[in-house]
Amino acid sequence: MALEKLTLAQVNWIDEIVPHSEQFDDFYFNTDGGLQEIEHTFIQPNRLTERFLECRSEQAFRIAETGFGSGLNFLAVSSLWLAKNPTNAQLHFISFEKFPMPLADLQKAHQAYPQLLELAEVLQNQYPLLMPGWHDIWLFKGRVRLTLWFGDVLKGLPECDASPGSRVDVWLLDGFTPGKNPDMWRPGLYKEMSRLSHAQTTFSTFTSAGDVRRGLQAAGFAVHKASGYGKKREMCFGQLEQQRPYSLKAPWFSRPEPIETGTAIVVGAGLAGASVAYKLAEAGWKVTVLEEKESVASAASGNLAGTVHPLITADWNLRSQWYLQGFEATLRTLLPWLESKEIQGNLRGMVQLLVTETSLERVKESLIRVGLPEALAVWLTASEASEKIGGQVTAPGLFFPNGGWLNPPSVVKRCLQHESIRVCTSESVNRIENNSDSESRQAWSVVTQSKKQSQALEADIVVVATGSLNADLNAQLGLPIRPVKGQVSHLEADQQTFPLKYPLTHAGYSSPCGNGRAVTGATFEAPDLGEVVSLEGHLTNLATANSALPNWINASAESLQGRIAFRPTTPDHLPIFGAVPDKAWLQEAYLSQSHTHAVYRYQAQRYQKGLYVSNGHGPRGLMSVFLAAESILAELEGSALVQPLSLYHASHPARFTIRQWRSGK
After folding, report:
1. Total-model pTM
2. Which residue, 254, 522, 600, 625, has fewest beta-carbon neighbours within 10 Å?
């Protein structure tokens, strides 16, 4: 699904303090009593103070809002949450905004409320890129999760999951009045509200317009009137009275049952395995990581440097949306580690050179059709790119201010330092067995072979993150993983005529990697599984680098060192992660049935409970493994998804099988 180009809010300022929307000819809020209006219209009718006090530890309280605007509702509700909820429960605030405010306007609007400025500055510092789609932000030491959907609310709401752990507790119907914003106040809004609600879900809104009340009632809500705030004569509020039946649109991608926190085995100690082990350990799991090699990060995750940047496509399609989310998830975890020098790298900028006509045209079209904000990407001429890099380049490009390079082994080692993680190297996995003996006892056994002995380790769950080279295990799990060989070349300081100021991509990539050294590559040798560094590989890397950076390398191929790694790739160039389906049940419920039945006639997917996978991260693993880890944790906890449904489905372990079946193959 390609998303529409964002139109930013056009804000006029009345007396330099009151924001007024040019699009809707209406005020965002009244500075004379804005917080009192929020209290009257949203906090009191939904009993937020009492419900926040009652919210239990480990519980998530979910509020959904139509119309983020300046974020004033969010700040007021977050302030109340932080003051009234004494536990480690989480407030999940979901908001939809078709015309997001530029950061400068957001900051200016917050000046009207000095009592909220401390919270407002935290929001401002993490305000997401103004790109269409879903953005997740964790604030206030994880006590508040803000999910922002930039775009049409009627396109955003169907992307929300309605499983039990994702239901909304409170709806704040804000935004501009129905008379001035009729595109939002439609029957589809109320139907989606009903789908995403539970029996105790409440709502409130500043309007009492008849169409709004009738639409809510038709969707199953009991609606009551009350006096409005200030000059508003009436408002309305209520609660879901009758849950309407809804069938899943993609039952084969339905979510697995949650599992209580316990013990976990992660197979593989590369980026995929280390990231999921870390996220599990942070959530209270006791984790054992098994690695076949003698050390961690020994395969593709062992390269000296990898570049980190969003993926730009002409129409901001599913892959570009996916990798922007992955990029944001990586920054969430790794920026604090970079600042404290716990990992090696630099995320202060990266250049993408557009060395082919195809890549150049794609970016030019994206600048027109998508509109890339400068906080995401800045257009560079060839001369501007040369100045950025510190030496001559042969093509124009893009500069990503938040991109950069990372040393993957340092990321892996930092993840595995957690006190709840035990790492066992030189342990080859022979088989994985389900030892569950009843619905109440969940157990998996992993049989390994080390140099000294064979042993069986048991845990509540197993996550397989072995990359591309364990073909037997990938086949057992039904994963169409293809290994693609890549050789990189290492350059010492005296083998470069100038140091790269920034990492860059071209037909390959070239990046500093610390201590004056650099790395360039990588070759693409799909049929070849040989592990010997070759002169031919170095020659290829030199030719690729010289075509983009003609004066950079001062070395012969014979003088270079390097390494070989195998990228685990998938047919659609997206990773595979999540719960592993029950193959026999999938065959019986779907593949042996007609693919043309109405969707509601198919049962929800059934999984091998406690078995998960994170694989197929390919050359973009640094931009995908942390999002995958967060998603697996959400599955285990039964909490709200960390992705919109379309992107969640796009990473599902059963997607290739289901696509073939649904297409009649």
Report:
1. 0.95
2. 600
Task: Evaluate if residue 451 carries a pLDDT over 80.
Answer: no
Side chain identity, residue 122: V
Q: How far apart are CA 439 and CA 421, in angstroms?
A: 27
pLDDT band at 32 (very low <50, low <70, confident <90, very high): low
Place of tokens 């106040």: 185
Q: Measuring CA to CA, how many Å separate 257 from each of 248, 346, 405, 479?
A: 16, 39, 37, 21
Q: What's the Cα-to-Cα distance from 447 to each of 273, 345, 438, 581, rounded to whole Å?
A: 18, 37, 21, 21
Give the residue-averaged pLDDT of 142-160.
96
Structure tokens at 50: 């009492």
**Residue 575, helix vs strand vs coil:** coil
Question: What's the token pair of residue 422?
Answer: 């035990």
Could you tell me which residues come within 8 angstroms of residue 16 by beta carbon, excluding any fewer than 6 positions away? none
Query: What local confidence, expressed as pLDDT, does residue 299 receive?
Result: 86
Which two tokens mark 499? 């140091």
Q: What is the pLDDT of residues 546-581, one digit of tens each?
A: 999 999 999 999 999 999 999 999 999 999 999 999
Task: Please give the radius of gyration of the chain, using alpha carbons only, rounded to the nearest integer.
Answer: 26
Sign of the four-CA dihedral 390, 372, 118, 85: negative
Angle at 173 between CA 197 and CA 245, to 5 degrees: 25
Report how far residue 521's alpha carbon sits from residue 534's, in angstroms, rounded to the nearest whole number: 13
1 pLDDT more than 90: no
Q: Please tell me the predicted confidence (pLDDT) of residue 420.
A: 98
Condensed to tens digits (0 to 9), the pLDDT of residues 4-31 reads 789 998 988 887 778 888 887 777 776 6
User: Mean pLDDT for the chain?
Assistant: 93
Q: How far apart are CA 444 and CA 262, in angstroms?
A: 12
Extract the tokens encoding 496. 């470069």
The DSSP bridge partners found for residue 591 are: none
Determine the Cα angle at 409 with ends 467 and 399, to 5°: 95
What does the pLDDT read at residue 440? 62
pLDDT at 31: 62
Q: Report residue 517: phi and psi, to 5°.
A: -85, 165
Rounded distance, CA 350 to CA 249, Å?
A: 40
Residue 641: HSE in the Cβ half-sphere, 13 Å Cα cutoff:
21
Beta strands in 156-277 (DSSP E): 168-173, 197-205, 221-227, 234-240, 263-267
Instruction: Please return the burial class of 592, using the count of CB atoms within 10 Å of its CB with bins 0-12, 13-18 and 19+.
Output: exposed
Q: What band does 438 get if pLDDT is binned at 50, 70 and 90?
A: low
Helix axis angle for 103-110 and 117-125, nearest 10°, is 170
**Total Cβ atoms within 10 A of residue 376:** 21
Find tokens 């979910």 and name the residue: 62
Give the Cα separation of 18 and 13 in Å (integer): 5
**464/536 Cα distance (integer angstroms):** 34
